[in-house]
Amino acid sequence: NACTLRNNNSSRFGKYIQLQLDRGQLLVGASVQTYLLEKTRVACQPANERNFHIFYQMMKGATEEQRKDWKLPHNQCFAWLPKCEKQIEEDSFHETVQAMVHLGINEERQRQIFRILVGILQLGNVSFCSSANESQHCDLDEHSEDFLQRAAELLGVPSEELHTLLRVRTLKAGKQNVLKPCSQAECGVRRDCLAKVIYGQLFEWLVMFINSCICADKSKWCNFIGVLDVYGFECFHINNLEQLCINYANEKLQQHFVAHYLRAQQEEYVSEGLEWSFVKYEDNQSCLELLEGNPISVFSLLNEESRLNRVSDSKMLRVRLEKELGCNGNIVWDKFSKVPHFIVTHYAGKVSYQIEGMVEKNKDPVPPELIGLLQKSDNLLLHEIFIDKETEIPNNKGLSKVTVVSKFKNSLENLMKVLLTTAPHYTRCIKPNSDCRPLTFSKEEVILQLEACGIVETIHISAAGFPIRIPFKSFLQRYGLITKYSTSGRLHVDSDADSTIILQQEVERLLGAVLQHVSCDERRSLVHRGRTKVFLTQPMLDLLEDLRKKIMCRCAFTIQCCWLQYQRRRRLARRQSATLIQAAVRSWLVRKRIQRWNRAATLIQNAWKKWRALLKSLAESELDDAMDLVEEDTPALKPVVGQRGSVQLSSFQEPVPVCGWPMGLALASAPSITVSLTATGFQKMISVMTSLNLPSRRGVYKVETNQYKQGLASIRAQPRGSVKLHYQRSPLLYADMQPDLKSDVTGFNEILLEKTL
Question: Which SMART domains does the record cross-reference, listed alphabetically (predicted)?
Fold first, then answer.
């Protein structure tokens, strides 16, 4: 395998793997058959692509001991290893070695294999300089002698003999051999040919060794599963013999696939009682006749040109192709192109093939003297590989035994014989994008792959007939509602019914309801009723789906209307229920609130009544009774007054109202006031004097306080003797604290003071 532009692990050869099963269907062995290894990749790598994986694995995974044995220093570069800095998952040398050990390849055999591969790489660094005289040998480049010496040592051949055979070719003239110096280009071709033949033979030996390890004896297996993995359809900017052979193989496989598919279609149609004549398809037989037909074809002309003992002429071959195959519609030429070519119309598209170098590749010439040199190699594996190889030496007429095209065609014919005797199943692998990114699909790349693997062509074949096949029960289960909701009557489908006749009648009624305005001929082109299936075309399927969609929309609209009606009724009922609940709750809350207010009002009234009664009793207790009015006529100062700090006023016939804090007085005495103080009551009297302001206003005394007005103190109405001043606070808080002389006294003053003015 190798890393290409489209795939990091692309198989550069076709393979057919046969998995061998015993009578119990258990895997007991396997075998591998390969087709057309891309040997040219060893010496010529396409742009931006790499060589085979094994070379990079050896360069990156070899140990120091192995590098010393292989003459492989760390800093050495090779002309045949491009993109060496690119690191991919497949560059695992350890896994390859483990696989070899698992297959039974011992260390000595591994050493021989790796020395041969490194020798091929060293051979690629050998380059030649042109000689001034054509009769002289080409010289090696100044740096090539060391590379040639290493290559000869690794391949186990003499260095001088290898040097000579790369620059000189042997021509046979009668019974004598003539040595002819090669040109610089011919030396490069012989070097590349040597590398390719060594790699190709080593690959074939490895496949044979693997088959000998895993293949079971014929008596142990009776059945097999064959897995065929070949190249896909290829169309590059420059296409040559490799692409022609690959596309030829794909044409053969596509023809087999189409024949198998059409055969399966025909068998199904016949078993269902349908006619097969309406499917018209032209296969790719004309393209295959162009490539492999007898007596004249592209391959026959190539083989004929390859067997001639002369230098190939691409322009002359183009003229022959145009003359012999011009009547075939699958081959054309671009008249404006200067490069000799021909264009073949394949099933997947047109491909232009370059004629230059095609004949030489078809010959695949291996100089016999190089084969003889390898047969004398000291490398036991290389000696074993080439010792039994028949040397393909042209005879006196210059004819070669086998060409690349003939060998590939024969192996492909054997493969087709195997495919025709088995039941094939096809798996198509589509790569979504070339960048290996997830969830990313490139439309152009996917379409190209679908065309290359024949899917598009298969779709065209399927569309030519009836691509949609539905069993009766499934058909009625999906489209039975069309008859149910149509005017032609109701359809009764029993999902458990086993009678095919009943199902056929129901299908006929359904199709009749759908195609009641369609003619019989047009109906036959749209739909066919088989014995167990209904065969439909895409327009008929679209018609059924449209009718089903309309009925489903109508039913969905009806369901939506019923659901909305139900929701509105339910919403209205809930709203009415909520209104009743809210009204009941509000009435209950109002009743509770009013009851609470009534209880509170009753409590307030009772408390107020008690408070009024208390105030009334306190007021009555503050008033002077009859015993208080009986006093002496002469105001004599009592000793207790001095001790208590009271004020004794001279009596007066007319009472004088006095306002003040902390005392409220109702006095009836003369204008002159006598105040007696004692030493013990001095502080109280100072308080009294500072709290009273006694201005003289036209012979009338008016007492005002400069303290806070907190209410009326003790009052005695119309006293005749001494007036007692009490400092205790009175409960009569709502009395008028400043009664005016000219205004009437109201409130509690009216009760307590009784009008005296």
Answer: MYSc (SM00242)
Overall size of the chain counted in residues: 757
**Residue 80 burial by CB count (10 A; 0-12/13-18/19+): exposed, middle or buried?**
buried
User: What is the rounded CA–CA span in Å between residue 118 and residue 67?
Assistant: 10
CA-based nearest residue to 391, from 409, 365, 410, 411: 365
Cα–Cα distances (Å) from 52 to 49, 69, 72, 123, 541, in that order, read 10, 22, 18, 16, 51
* Cα gap 110→65, rounded to integer Å: 14
* Kind and range of the H or E run holding 27: strand 27-35
Rounded to 5°, angle at Cα 191 from 185 and 192: 90
Taking the chain, what is the end-to-end CA distance rounded to the nearest angstrom? Answer: 138
Nearest of 116, 112, 40, 115 to residue 80 by alpha carbon: 40
Give the integer Cα–Cα distance in Å for 555 and 563.
12
Q: What pTM was computed for the model?
A: 0.66
For the four alpha carbons of 238, 241, 247 and 251, in that order, the dihedral sign comes to positive
Q: Which 8-state DSSP code applies to residue 704?
A: B
Distance CA 29, CA 236 (A): 38
Question: So what's the pLDDT on residue 303?
Answer: 92
Backbone angles phi, psi at 15, to 5 degrees: -150, 145
Tokens of 508: 């006929």
Q: Is 254 exposed, middle or buried (0-12, 13-18, 19+ CB in 10 A)?
A: buried
Q: Is the dihedral of CA 101, 105, 111, 113 positive or negative?
A: negative
Encode 14-26: b = buried (16+ Cβ within 10 Å), e = exposed: bebebebbeeeee
**Residue 78's CB: how many other CB atoms inside 10 A?**
19
Are the C-beta atoms of 170 and 186 separated by less than 8 Å? no
The Cα–Cα gap between 305 and 328 comes to 21
Q: What number of helices (H) and strands (E) belong to the chain?
A: 26, 17
The CA-based dihedral angle spanning residues 631, 635, 639, 640, taken in that order and rounded to the nearest 10 degrees: 50
Q: Give the whole-angstrom CA distance, residue 550 versus residue 110.
A: 73
Q: Which two tokens stand for residue 719?
A: 């006293």
Query: Which two three-digit tokens encode residue 339?
Result: 């490069």
Q: Which residues in the chain land under pLDDT 50?
A: 391-400, 491, 497, 625-626, 629-632, 634, 637-638, 640-680, 693-720, 723-736, 741-743, 754-757
Q: Phi/psi at 208 (nearest 5 deg)?
A: -65, -40
In this predicted structure, what is the pLDDT of residue 179?
Answer: 85
